[in-house]
Write a structure and sequence with these properties.
CATH class: Mainly Alpha
Number of helices: 19
Pfam families: Aa_trans
Largest sheet: 2 strands, antiparallel
Number of strands: 2
CATH architecture: Up-down Bundle
GO molecular function: L-amino acid transmembrane transporter activity
Region (Disordered): 22-54
Helix content: 55-70%
Protein name: Transmembrane amino acid transporter
Domain Amino acid transporter transmembrane: 73-437
Structural class: mainly alpha
Protein backbone atom coordinates (compact mmCIF):
# COMPACT_ATOMS: atom_id res chain seq x y z
CA UNK A 1 0.00 0.00 0.00
CA UNK A 2 2.84 2.43 0.82
CA UNK A 3 4.45 1.74 -2.57
CA UNK A 4 1.11 2.34 -4.27
CA UNK A 5 0.59 5.68 -2.54
CA UNK A 6 4.15 6.87 -3.18
CA UNK A 7 3.94 6.21 -6.94
CA UNK A 8 3.80 9.45 -9.00
CA UNK A 9 0.35 10.28 -10.32
CA UNK A 10 -0.35 9.89 -14.03
CA UNK A 11 -1.98 12.53 -16.23
CA UNK A 12 -5.17 10.47 -16.26
CA UNK A 13 -5.23 10.35 -12.46
CA UNK A 14 -4.95 14.13 -12.28
CA UNK A 15 -7.88 14.43 -14.71
CA UNK A 16 -9.98 11.95 -12.71
CA UNK A 17 -9.61 13.83 -9.41
CA UNK A 18 -10.01 17.21 -11.12
CA UNK A 19 -13.43 16.11 -12.41
CA UNK A 20 -14.39 15.05 -8.89
CA UNK A 21 -13.28 18.40 -7.44
CA UNK A 22 -15.19 20.40 -10.07
CA UNK A 23 -18.33 18.41 -9.17
CA UNK A 24 -17.67 19.10 -5.50
CA UNK A 25 -17.28 22.84 -6.16
CA UNK A 26 -20.54 22.98 -8.06
CA UNK A 27 -22.33 21.83 -4.89
CA UNK A 28 -20.63 24.29 -2.53
CA UNK A 29 -22.84 26.61 -0.51
CA UNK A 30 -22.75 30.26 -1.63
CA UNK A 31 -20.34 32.56 0.25
CA UNK A 32 -21.63 33.39 3.69
CA UNK A 33 -23.85 30.31 4.01
CA UNK A 34 -22.92 27.36 6.13
CA UNK A 35 -23.68 23.90 4.97
CA UNK A 36 -22.13 20.53 4.26
CA UNK A 37 -19.99 20.17 1.18
CA UNK A 38 -21.09 17.20 -0.88
CA UNK A 39 -18.76 14.96 -2.79
CA UNK A 40 -19.29 12.18 -5.29
CA UNK A 41 -19.46 9.08 -3.18
CA UNK A 42 -16.48 10.03 -1.09
CA UNK A 43 -14.44 10.79 -4.18
CA UNK A 44 -12.34 13.29 -2.23
CA UNK A 45 -10.97 11.33 0.74
CA UNK A 46 -8.61 12.95 3.24
CA UNK A 47 -9.07 16.35 1.61
CA UNK A 48 -7.63 18.28 4.52
CA UNK A 49 -4.62 16.03 4.65
CA UNK A 50 -3.93 16.49 0.94
CA UNK A 51 -4.40 20.27 0.88
CA UNK A 52 -4.02 22.13 4.13
CA UNK A 53 -4.17 25.41 2.25
CA UNK A 54 -7.66 24.75 0.85
CA UNK A 55 -9.20 26.95 3.55
CA UNK A 56 -7.38 29.90 2.00
CA UNK A 57 -9.57 29.65 -1.15
CA UNK A 58 -11.76 32.63 -0.40
CA UNK A 59 -11.42 35.04 -3.37
CA UNK A 60 -14.33 35.74 -5.72
CA UNK A 61 -13.99 36.71 -9.38
CA UNK A 62 -14.45 40.40 -8.56
CA UNK A 63 -11.40 40.38 -6.30
CA UNK A 64 -9.46 38.49 -8.98
CA UNK A 65 -10.42 41.17 -11.54
CA UNK A 66 -8.66 43.78 -9.40
CA UNK A 67 -5.65 41.50 -8.85
CA UNK A 68 -5.29 40.83 -12.60
CA UNK A 69 -5.69 44.52 -13.38
CA UNK A 70 -3.17 45.56 -10.70
CA UNK A 71 -0.79 42.82 -11.87
CA UNK A 72 -1.03 43.46 -15.63
CA UNK A 73 -2.08 47.12 -15.74
CA UNK A 74 1.04 49.19 -16.41
CA UNK A 75 0.01 51.89 -18.90
CA UNK A 76 2.93 54.21 -18.30
CA UNK A 77 5.27 52.44 -20.73
CA UNK A 78 2.80 52.65 -23.64
CA UNK A 79 3.67 56.21 -24.83
CA UNK A 80 7.35 55.18 -25.02
CA UNK A 81 6.35 52.02 -26.92
CA UNK A 82 4.41 54.12 -29.46
CA UNK A 83 7.45 56.41 -29.77
CA UNK A 84 9.50 53.39 -30.93
CA UNK A 85 6.87 52.03 -33.35
CA UNK A 86 4.68 54.92 -34.53
CA UNK A 87 0.87 55.07 -34.62
CA UNK A 88 -0.04 52.24 -37.00
CA UNK A 89 2.40 49.53 -35.93
CA UNK A 90 1.86 50.48 -32.27
CA UNK A 91 -1.91 50.04 -32.42
CA UNK A 92 -1.49 46.76 -34.33
CA UNK A 93 1.04 45.37 -31.84
CA UNK A 94 -1.03 46.26 -28.76
CA UNK A 95 -4.15 44.77 -30.36
CA UNK A 96 -2.44 41.52 -31.34
CA UNK A 97 -0.76 41.07 -27.96
CA UNK A 98 -4.03 41.92 -26.17
CA UNK A 99 -5.89 39.19 -28.06
CA UNK A 100 -3.07 36.67 -27.63
CA UNK A 101 -2.66 37.35 -23.91
CA UNK A 102 -6.40 36.76 -23.44
CA UNK A 103 -6.08 33.49 -25.37
CA UNK A 104 -3.15 32.48 -23.17
CA UNK A 105 -5.22 33.27 -20.08
CA UNK A 106 -7.98 31.04 -21.44
CA UNK A 107 -5.44 28.23 -21.95
CA UNK A 108 -4.24 28.54 -18.34
CA UNK A 109 -7.82 28.57 -17.02
CA UNK A 110 -8.94 25.59 -19.11
CA UNK A 111 -5.91 23.47 -18.20
CA UNK A 112 -6.25 24.43 -14.53
CA UNK A 113 -9.86 23.23 -14.39
CA UNK A 114 -8.80 19.95 -15.99
CA UNK A 115 -5.79 19.24 -13.74
CA UNK A 116 -6.35 20.89 -10.32
CA UNK A 117 -8.04 18.91 -7.55
CA UNK A 118 -8.36 18.79 -3.78
CA UNK A 119 -6.19 15.67 -3.74
CA UNK A 120 -3.58 17.11 -6.11
CA UNK A 121 -3.84 20.92 -5.88
CA UNK A 122 -2.24 22.91 -8.69
CA UNK A 123 -0.52 25.74 -6.82
CA UNK A 124 2.06 27.15 -9.23
CA UNK A 125 2.83 27.58 -12.92
CA UNK A 126 5.43 24.81 -12.91
CA UNK A 127 2.83 22.25 -11.79
CA UNK A 128 1.42 22.30 -15.34
CA UNK A 129 4.78 21.11 -16.66
CA UNK A 130 5.11 18.43 -13.97
CA UNK A 131 1.73 16.96 -14.92
CA UNK A 132 2.22 17.28 -18.67
CA UNK A 133 5.96 16.80 -19.27
CA UNK A 134 7.69 15.61 -16.07
CA UNK A 135 9.85 16.79 -13.17
CA UNK A 136 12.79 18.35 -15.04
CA UNK A 137 10.64 20.75 -17.15
CA UNK A 138 8.82 21.77 -13.98
CA UNK A 139 12.10 22.53 -12.24
CA UNK A 140 13.32 24.64 -15.18
CA UNK A 141 10.05 26.58 -15.37
CA UNK A 142 10.09 27.27 -11.63
CA UNK A 143 13.66 28.58 -11.88
CA UNK A 144 12.60 30.90 -14.72
CA UNK A 145 9.56 32.03 -12.76
CA UNK A 146 11.63 32.77 -9.66
CA UNK A 147 14.08 34.80 -11.74
CA UNK A 148 11.31 36.77 -13.42
CA UNK A 149 9.59 37.61 -10.15
CA UNK A 150 12.73 38.81 -8.38
CA UNK A 151 13.74 40.86 -11.45
CA UNK A 152 10.26 42.37 -11.69
CA UNK A 153 10.33 43.36 -8.02
CA UNK A 154 13.76 44.90 -8.62
CA UNK A 155 12.57 47.14 -11.48
CA UNK A 156 9.56 48.20 -9.40
CA UNK A 157 11.98 49.30 -6.67
CA UNK A 158 13.94 51.11 -9.41
CA UNK A 159 10.78 52.82 -10.66
CA UNK A 160 9.81 53.99 -7.17
CA UNK A 161 13.38 55.11 -6.51
CA UNK A 162 13.32 57.24 -9.67
CA UNK A 163 10.06 58.83 -8.52
CA UNK A 164 11.45 59.71 -5.08
CA UNK A 165 14.67 61.02 -6.62
CA UNK A 166 12.75 63.39 -8.90
CA UNK A 167 10.62 64.59 -5.99
CA UNK A 168 13.68 65.26 -3.80
CA UNK A 169 15.39 67.53 -6.34
CA UNK A 170 12.84 70.31 -5.91
CA UNK A 171 11.58 72.81 -8.50
CA UNK A 172 15.09 74.17 -9.00
CA UNK A 173 16.45 70.81 -10.16
CA UNK A 174 18.99 70.36 -7.37
CA UNK A 175 21.01 67.24 -6.64
CA UNK A 176 18.41 65.68 -4.35
CA UNK A 177 18.70 62.52 -2.27
CA UNK A 178 21.35 59.98 -3.32
CA UNK A 179 19.69 57.57 -5.76
CA UNK A 180 20.82 54.41 -3.96
CA UNK A 181 19.29 55.76 -0.74
CA UNK A 182 15.97 56.15 -2.57
CA UNK A 183 16.14 52.48 -3.55
CA UNK A 184 16.86 51.43 0.05
CA UNK A 185 13.74 53.26 1.27
CA UNK A 186 11.42 51.21 -0.95
CA UNK A 187 13.16 47.92 -0.35
CA UNK A 188 12.48 48.51 3.36
CA UNK A 189 8.85 49.53 2.71
CA UNK A 190 8.26 46.37 0.66
CA UNK A 191 9.73 44.25 3.45
CA UNK A 192 7.09 45.62 5.83
CA UNK A 193 4.09 45.45 3.49
CA UNK A 194 5.16 41.99 2.32
CA UNK A 195 4.32 40.41 5.68
CA UNK A 196 0.79 39.83 4.30
CA UNK A 197 0.67 36.17 3.22
CA UNK A 198 -2.70 35.67 1.46
CA UNK A 199 -3.73 37.26 -1.85
CA UNK A 200 -7.29 37.81 -0.60
CA UNK A 201 -6.01 40.62 1.63
CA UNK A 202 -4.44 42.25 -1.41
CA UNK A 203 -7.74 42.67 -3.30
CA UNK A 204 -8.66 45.99 -1.67
CA UNK A 205 -5.08 47.24 -1.97
CA UNK A 206 -5.17 46.20 -5.63
CA UNK A 207 -8.42 48.13 -6.10
CA UNK A 208 -6.70 51.19 -4.68
CA UNK A 209 -3.67 50.68 -6.95
CA UNK A 210 -5.87 50.51 -10.06
CA UNK A 211 -7.66 53.69 -8.97
CA UNK A 212 -4.35 55.49 -8.40
CA UNK A 213 -3.12 54.47 -11.85
CA UNK A 214 -6.27 55.89 -13.44
CA UNK A 215 -5.82 59.19 -11.56
CA UNK A 216 -2.17 59.38 -12.70
CA UNK A 217 -3.24 58.77 -16.30
CA UNK A 218 -5.76 61.62 -16.17
CA UNK A 219 -3.14 63.89 -14.61
CA UNK A 220 -0.60 63.03 -17.34
CA UNK A 221 -3.20 63.67 -20.06
CA UNK A 222 -3.94 67.11 -18.65
CA UNK A 223 -0.30 68.10 -18.19
CA UNK A 224 1.14 66.99 -21.57
CA UNK A 225 -1.42 69.17 -23.38
CA UNK A 226 -0.16 72.32 -21.66
CA UNK A 227 3.57 71.76 -21.15
CA UNK A 228 6.64 70.52 -23.08
CA UNK A 229 8.32 67.14 -22.48
CA UNK A 230 10.83 66.73 -19.65
CA UNK A 231 14.01 67.24 -21.70
CA UNK A 232 16.23 67.00 -18.61
CA UNK A 233 15.08 63.43 -17.97
CA UNK A 234 15.16 62.36 -21.64
CA UNK A 235 18.79 63.50 -21.93
CA UNK A 236 19.71 61.80 -18.63
CA UNK A 237 18.15 58.51 -19.72
CA UNK A 238 18.69 58.41 -23.51
CA UNK A 239 21.59 60.78 -24.17
CA UNK A 240 22.11 64.28 -25.66
CA UNK A 241 20.37 63.38 -28.94
CA UNK A 242 17.09 63.69 -27.05
CA UNK A 243 17.61 67.20 -25.77
CA UNK A 244 15.30 70.16 -26.57
CA UNK A 245 14.04 70.15 -30.16
CA UNK A 246 10.93 69.92 -32.36
CA UNK A 247 8.44 67.15 -31.53
CA UNK A 248 7.98 64.54 -34.28
CA UNK A 249 5.26 61.88 -34.61
CA UNK A 250 5.08 59.15 -37.23
CA UNK A 251 2.29 57.04 -38.74
CA UNK A 252 4.76 54.20 -39.35
CA UNK A 253 8.10 53.23 -37.88
CA UNK A 254 10.21 56.29 -36.94
CA UNK A 255 13.46 56.86 -38.87
CA UNK A 256 16.88 56.46 -37.25
CA UNK A 257 17.58 59.09 -34.63
CA UNK A 258 13.94 59.46 -33.58
CA UNK A 259 13.62 56.28 -31.50
CA UNK A 260 15.18 56.44 -28.03
CA UNK A 261 15.11 52.64 -27.76
CA UNK A 262 17.83 52.16 -30.39
CA UNK A 263 18.51 52.31 -34.11
CA UNK A 264 16.34 50.54 -36.69
CA UNK A 265 15.17 47.04 -35.86
CA UNK A 266 16.58 47.18 -32.31
CA UNK A 267 14.46 50.23 -31.43
CA UNK A 268 11.33 48.65 -32.88
CA UNK A 269 11.89 45.45 -30.92
CA UNK A 270 12.42 47.35 -27.69
CA UNK A 271 9.09 49.10 -28.26
CA UNK A 272 7.44 45.76 -28.96
CA UNK A 273 8.87 44.36 -25.73
CA UNK A 274 7.13 47.09 -23.75
CA UNK A 275 3.84 45.79 -25.18
CA UNK A 276 4.86 42.31 -24.04
CA UNK A 277 5.74 43.66 -20.60
CA UNK A 278 2.41 45.53 -20.47
CA UNK A 279 0.39 42.33 -20.91
CA UNK A 280 2.63 40.03 -18.88
CA UNK A 281 0.35 38.61 -16.21
CA UNK A 282 -0.29 34.97 -17.11
CA UNK A 283 2.42 33.78 -14.76
CA UNK A 284 0.38 34.82 -11.71
CA UNK A 285 -2.94 33.50 -13.01
CA UNK A 286 -2.29 30.10 -11.40
CA UNK A 287 -1.75 31.77 -8.02
CA UNK A 288 -5.01 33.69 -8.47
CA UNK A 289 -6.94 30.56 -9.50
CA UNK A 290 -5.54 28.66 -6.51
CA UNK A 291 -7.20 31.13 -4.12
CA UNK A 292 -10.63 31.32 -5.81
CA UNK A 293 -13.78 29.87 -4.28
CA UNK A 294 -15.05 29.01 -7.76
CA UNK A 295 -12.24 28.72 -10.33
CA UNK A 296 -14.88 28.29 -13.06
CA UNK A 297 -15.64 32.03 -12.72
CA UNK A 298 -12.10 33.07 -13.59
CA UNK A 299 -13.03 33.78 -17.22
CA UNK A 300 -15.24 36.68 -16.12
CA UNK A 301 -12.34 38.39 -14.36
CA UNK A 302 -10.02 37.64 -17.30
CA UNK A 303 -12.24 39.09 -20.04
CA UNK A 304 -13.23 42.19 -18.04
CA UNK A 305 -9.64 42.91 -17.01
CA UNK A 306 -8.12 42.42 -20.47
CA UNK A 307 -10.76 44.60 -22.16
CA UNK A 308 -10.36 47.34 -19.55
CA UNK A 309 -6.58 47.22 -19.87
CA UNK A 310 -6.50 47.27 -23.69
CA UNK A 311 -8.80 50.28 -24.05
CA UNK A 312 -6.85 52.36 -21.54
CA UNK A 313 -3.45 51.24 -22.87
CA UNK A 314 -4.13 52.32 -26.45
CA UNK A 315 -6.01 55.52 -25.57
CA UNK A 316 -3.37 56.70 -23.09
CA UNK A 317 -0.39 55.73 -25.23
CA UNK A 318 -1.73 57.44 -28.35
CA UNK A 319 -2.67 60.62 -26.50
CA UNK A 320 0.66 61.17 -24.74
CA UNK A 321 2.64 60.22 -27.87
CA UNK A 322 0.65 62.78 -29.87
CA UNK A 323 1.92 65.57 -27.60
CA UNK A 324 5.42 64.34 -26.67
CA UNK A 325 6.46 62.41 -29.79
CA UNK A 326 9.96 60.98 -29.70
CA UNK A 327 10.53 62.57 -26.26
CA UNK A 328 7.99 60.30 -24.52
CA UNK A 329 9.67 58.91 -21.40
CA UNK A 330 9.34 55.51 -19.77
CA UNK A 331 7.54 55.70 -17.34
CA UNK A 332 5.29 58.47 -18.65
CA UNK A 333 4.67 60.33 -15.37
CA UNK A 334 8.40 60.99 -15.01
CA UNK A 335 8.30 62.72 -18.40
CA UNK A 336 6.16 65.60 -17.08
CA UNK A 337 8.12 68.87 -17.01
CA UNK A 338 6.17 70.99 -14.42
CA UNK A 339 7.70 70.03 -11.07
CA UNK A 340 4.52 70.22 -8.98
CA UNK A 341 2.52 67.95 -11.29
CA UNK A 342 5.47 65.63 -11.71
CA UNK A 343 5.67 65.38 -7.92
CA UNK A 344 1.96 64.62 -7.53
CA UNK A 345 2.15 61.90 -10.20
CA UNK A 346 5.29 60.41 -8.66
CA UNK A 347 3.76 60.35 -5.18
CA UNK A 348 0.64 58.57 -6.44
CA UNK A 349 2.68 56.11 -8.52
CA UNK A 350 4.75 55.14 -5.49
CA UNK A 351 1.60 53.93 -3.71
CA UNK A 352 0.38 52.01 -6.75
CA UNK A 353 3.68 50.33 -7.55
CA UNK A 354 4.39 49.43 -3.93
CA UNK A 355 1.21 47.32 -3.97
CA UNK A 356 2.12 45.69 -7.30
CA UNK A 357 5.68 45.01 -6.13
CA UNK A 358 4.40 43.42 -2.94
CA UNK A 359 2.04 41.24 -4.99
CA UNK A 360 4.91 39.93 -7.14
CA UNK A 361 7.14 39.42 -4.09
CA UNK A 362 4.34 37.53 -2.32
CA UNK A 363 3.98 35.03 -5.17
CA UNK A 364 7.73 34.79 -5.75
CA UNK A 365 8.52 34.07 -2.12
CA UNK A 366 5.69 31.52 -1.89
CA UNK A 367 7.11 29.75 -4.95
CA UNK A 368 10.58 29.62 -3.39
CA UNK A 369 9.19 28.51 -0.01
CA UNK A 370 7.00 25.70 -1.37
CA UNK A 371 9.21 24.48 -4.23
CA UNK A 372 12.59 24.68 -2.51
CA UNK A 373 12.32 25.04 1.26
CA UNK A 374 9.36 22.72 1.84
CA UNK A 375 10.28 20.12 -0.78
CA UNK A 376 14.01 19.82 -0.05
CA UNK A 377 14.43 21.13 3.50
CA UNK A 378 11.03 20.13 4.96
CA UNK A 379 10.08 23.61 6.17
CA UNK A 380 6.66 23.82 7.92
CA UNK A 381 3.46 24.88 6.18
CA UNK A 382 2.92 28.64 5.92
CA UNK A 383 -0.29 28.37 7.94
CA UNK A 384 1.66 27.10 10.98
CA UNK A 385 3.24 29.31 13.64
CA UNK A 386 6.78 28.36 12.59
CA UNK A 387 5.83 28.97 8.95
CA UNK A 388 4.72 32.51 9.79
CA UNK A 389 8.03 33.16 11.56
CA UNK A 390 10.02 31.95 8.56
CA UNK A 391 7.89 34.13 6.26
CA UNK A 392 8.58 37.19 8.43
CA UNK A 393 12.33 36.57 8.17
CA UNK A 394 12.46 35.65 4.47
CA UNK A 395 10.42 38.64 3.25
CA UNK A 396 13.08 41.32 3.97
CA UNK A 397 15.75 38.98 2.57
CA UNK A 398 13.82 38.74 -0.71
CA UNK A 399 13.44 42.51 -1.00
CA UNK A 400 17.13 43.02 -0.14
CA UNK A 401 18.13 40.78 -3.05
CA UNK A 402 15.84 42.73 -5.40
CA UNK A 403 17.48 45.95 -4.18
CA UNK A 404 20.96 44.65 -5.01
CA UNK A 405 19.86 43.82 -8.57
CA UNK A 406 18.27 47.21 -9.34
CA UNK A 407 21.17 49.14 -7.79
CA UNK A 408 23.56 47.22 -10.03
CA UNK A 409 21.62 47.77 -13.29
CA UNK A 410 19.58 51.03 -12.97
CA UNK A 411 18.26 51.21 -16.59
CA UNK A 412 14.46 50.93 -16.36
CA UNK A 413 13.40 50.80 -20.04
CA UNK A 414 16.05 48.34 -21.16
CA UNK A 415 15.96 46.10 -18.07
CA UNK A 416 12.16 45.87 -18.32
CA UNK A 417 12.60 45.05 -22.03
CA UNK A 418 15.04 42.25 -21.18
CA UNK A 419 12.65 40.83 -18.56
CA UNK A 420 9.82 41.11 -21.06
CA UNK A 421 11.75 39.17 -23.71
CA UNK A 422 13.44 36.53 -21.57
CA UNK A 423 10.66 35.76 -19.09
CA UNK A 424 7.35 37.60 -19.48
CA UNK A 425 7.03 36.73 -23.16
CA UNK A 426 7.78 33.10 -22.30
CA UNK A 427 5.24 32.87 -19.46
CA UNK A 428 2.54 34.82 -21.31
CA UNK A 429 2.88 33.38 -24.81
CA UNK A 430 5.50 30.62 -25.28
CA UNK A 431 4.74 28.41 -22.27
CA UNK A 432 0.91 28.64 -22.57
CA UNK A 433 1.25 27.41 -26.18
CA UNK A 434 3.21 24.39 -24.89
CA UNK A 435 0.62 23.81 -22.16
CA UNK A 436 -2.17 23.94 -24.76
CA UNK A 437 -0.40 21.39 -26.96
CA UNK A 438 0.41 19.01 -24.13
CA UNK A 439 -2.94 19.23 -22.37
CA UNK A 440 -5.12 19.06 -25.51
CA UNK A 441 -3.27 16.11 -27.03
CA UNK A 442 -3.13 14.10 -23.78
CA UNK A 443 -6.77 14.82 -22.99
CA UNK A 444 -7.96 13.95 -26.52
CA UNK A 445 -6.01 10.69 -26.35
CA UNK A 446 -8.35 9.52 -23.56
CA UNK A 447 -11.29 7.52 -24.96
CA UNK A 448 -14.54 7.66 -22.99
CA UNK A 449 -16.07 4.20 -22.58
CA UNK A 450 -13.00 2.29 -23.77
CA UNK A 451 -10.48 3.59 -21.23
CA UNK A 452 -10.98 4.17 -17.51
CA UNK A 453 -9.05 5.07 -14.36
CA UNK A 454 -9.26 2.79 -11.31
CA UNK A 455 -8.88 4.88 -8.12
CA UNK A 456 -8.25 1.77 -6.00
CA UNK A 457 -5.20 0.55 -7.93
CA UNK A 458 -4.34 3.96 -9.45
CA UNK A 459 -4.04 2.36 -12.88
CA UNK A 460 -5.44 3.38 -16.26
CA UNK A 461 -6.53 1.01 -19.03
CA UNK A 462 -4.89 2.42 -22.18
CA UNK A 463 -6.29 1.60 -25.62
CA UNK A 464 -2.95 2.27 -27.31
CA UNK A 465 0.42 3.84 -26.58
CA UNK A 466 3.34 5.61 -28.22
CA UNK A 467 3.27 7.44 -31.54
CA UNK A 468 -0.03 5.86 -32.57
CA UNK A 469 -1.76 7.38 -29.52
CA UNK A 470 -0.11 10.77 -30.12
CA UNK A 471 -1.11 10.83 -33.81
CA UNK A 472 -4.71 9.82 -33.05
CA UNK A 473 -5.02 12.58 -30.44
CA UNK A 474 -3.36 15.24 -32.63
CA UNK A 475 -5.68 14.53 -35.57
CA UNK A 476 -8.76 14.80 -33.38
CA UNK A 477 -8.32 18.62 -33.47
CA UNK A 478 -5.62 19.20 -36.13
CA UNK A 479 -6.35 22.90 -36.78
CA UNK A 480 -6.20 23.84 -33.09
CA UNK A 481 -3.04 21.81 -32.48
CA UNK A 482 -1.32 23.21 -35.58
CA UNK A 483 -2.22 26.75 -34.50
CA UNK A 484 -0.79 26.15 -31.02
CA UNK A 485 2.43 24.80 -32.57
CA UNK A 486 2.75 27.93 -34.76
CA UNK A 487 1.93 30.08 -31.71
CA UNK A 488 4.75 28.42 -29.78
CA UNK A 489 7.34 28.83 -32.55
CA UNK A 490 6.38 32.47 -33.18
CA UNK A 491 6.61 33.33 -29.48
CA UNK A 492 9.96 31.55 -29.16
CA UNK A 493 11.39 33.47 -32.13
CA UNK A 494 10.20 36.79 -30.69
CA UNK A 495 11.78 35.85 -27.36
CA UNK A 496 15.22 35.29 -28.92
CA UNK A 497 15.08 38.50 -30.98
CA UNK A 498 13.87 40.46 -27.95
CA UNK A 499 16.72 39.29 -25.72
CA UNK A 500 19.18 40.32 -28.43
CA UNK A 501 17.72 43.82 -28.84
CA UNK A 502 17.51 44.51 -25.10
CA UNK A 503 21.10 43.36 -24.51
CA UNK A 504 22.31 45.63 -27.33
CA UNK A 505 20.40 48.55 -25.77
CA UNK A 506 21.83 47.82 -22.30
CA UNK A 507 25.37 47.78 -23.70
CA UNK A 508 24.71 51.16 -25.32
CA UNK A 509 23.32 52.59 -22.07
CA UNK A 510 26.36 51.49 -20.05
CA UNK A 511 28.71 52.89 -22.70
CA UNK A 512 27.85 56.43 -21.60
CA UNK A 513 24.44 57.29 -23.04
CA UNK A 514 22.76 57.10 -19.62
CA UNK A 515 23.69 59.28 -16.66
CA UNK A 516 23.12 56.44 -14.19
CA UNK A 517 25.88 54.10 -13.01
CA UNK A 518 25.88 51.00 -10.83
CA UNK A 519 25.56 51.89 -7.14
CA UNK A 520 25.82 55.59 -7.95
CA UNK A 521 24.11 58.63 -6.46
CA UNK A 522 23.26 60.13 -9.88
CA UNK A 523 19.67 59.17 -10.88
CA UNK A 524 18.80 57.90 -14.39
CA UNK A 525 16.04 60.55 -14.82
Amino acid sequence: MDALQSRPASFEEYVYWAKATRRDESHQAPPGEKGPRTSDGGALPQQQQHDTGRSMRTAGWGAIFYLITADVFGPFSTPWAFAQMGYGPGIAIFTVFGVLSTYSGWIIWNAYLGLDSARYPLREYGDFFLRLFGRLPRRLVNICQSLQLILTVSIIILLMGQSLSQMSRGPGGGQGVCFVTCLVVFAAAGSILGQVRTLRRFSWLAFGAVGLNCVIMLLCVGVVVNSPPNFVSTMAQYGPDFGPGPIAKFAGFPPDGYASGGLGFVGTLNGLLQAVFAYGGCMLFVAFLAEMRQPRDFWKALVCAELFIYILYVAFGLFVYSFQGQFALNPAMQGLSPYRWQTVANALSIGAYLVVGTLFANVGLKLFYIDILQEFFHFPDLTSVRGRVYWAVLTPTYWALAFVICATVPMFSFVSGFIGAAFILSFTFTFPALIALGYTIKRDAMVEGEERFDPETRTYSYKDRGFKRFRRAFMKRPILNTWNAIYFLGALTTCVLGVYSSVVALIGAFSGKSAATSWGCVPPV
